Amino acid sequence: MPATLAQKLVAKPIVLAPGVYDALTALLAERAGFEALYLSGASLSYTRLGRPDIGLASVSEVADSLANICARVSVPVIVDADTGYGNALNVVRTVKSFERAGAAAIQLEDQAAPKRCGHLDGKALVTAAEMVGKIKAALDARKAALIVARTDAIAVEGFDAAMERAERYLEAGADVLFVEALRSLEDMKAAAKRFGYRVPLLANMVEGGKTPILSATELEALGFRIAIFPGALVRHLAFSAQEFLAILKKEGNTARARDRMFVFDGLNAVIGTPEMLALGKKYDKE
What whole-number distance in Å separates Cα of residue 166 and Cα of residue 191? Predict the structure, then answer.
């Protein structure tokens, strides 16, 4: 049997999870050889709503996307559940919904509504006690999914306060810790030194964000067990799409972009069209 996410977290190498936002990007990531995926709330907001990551996506929209992804790929999926979409009772509903959809791990954060991307300024927090209650509610509600506890306290209360919050979240039973927006290599080392040997620690790599960008190998050497690159794929695809659309608008055809795109049969091969048509023939009437 394939290793579970929990098993991967206690073995080498570090779990490297690209950010995906729909079944196609999840399929492409799985085909590229990734053994875990991260359903990014930011990427989902960018693509599904065309809006920033400021808490606009609903629990049902995320659950729907998650279900489509988990129906298409077999690797474990970590899902960004924002604040749990409300209080501890909302967290119970969110965890049950996301686990039914196939989540291997569910990430909750200690921001207050309206939440925003961890690398945007102007965040606010709930109390540590309220977040502890949400973690306990999530643990009671889950059947097998790991619970990832994220603190955004560095930007609001400072590094030391973030460490104390992470300590409380670990004591509450969180399976994975995520200290968001670490500001320097020194802070990354300090967080890993304090927690890395006690619990799997997640590092968030955001190009242009608050945290220094390191490779998965470098993060593993520091003591991190999960490395996510949540928005990298959508930023790359958006950049490429903008370039492609400029070519089409200017030239009236796609010739100059043809070597950087799938042709019709190429994409059909990736998504399994021949196999599905063959399966359909099995049920054709005689």
Answer: 9
Name residues whose C-beta falls within 8 Å of residue 12's C-beta, 6 or more positions apart in sequence: 220
Predicted pLDDT of residue 172: 98
Of 110, 83, 111, 98, the closest CA to residue 141 belongs to 98
For the chain, what percentages of helix, strand and coil (3-state, to nearest 5) are there? Answer: 50, 15, 35
What are the CA-CA distances from residue 59 to residues 21, 66, 83 (Å)? 14, 10, 10
Question: CA distances (Å), 264 to each of 28, 81, 244, 250, 269, in order?
Answer: 16, 35, 16, 23, 9
Distance CA 73, CA 29 (A): 9
Helix (H, G, I), strand (E, B) or coil at 214: coil
The predicted model scores a pTM of 0.95
Of all residues in the chain, the percent with pLDDT exceeding 90 is 91
Block residue for tokens 């207050």: 112
Tell me: the pLDDT tens digits for 115-163?
Answer: 877 677 878 999 999 999 999 999 999 999 999 999 999 999 999 999 9
Interatomic CA distance for residues 255 and 225, integer angstroms: 44
Which positions ≥6 away from 84 have C-beta within 8 Å?
Answer: 90, 91, 94, 95, 108, 134, 138
Burial of 87 (0-12, 13-18, 19+ CB in 10 A): middle
- Sort 217 into a burial class: Cβ within 10 Å, 0-12 / 13-18 / 19+: exposed
Q: Are 142 and 110 in contact (CB under 8 A)?
A: no
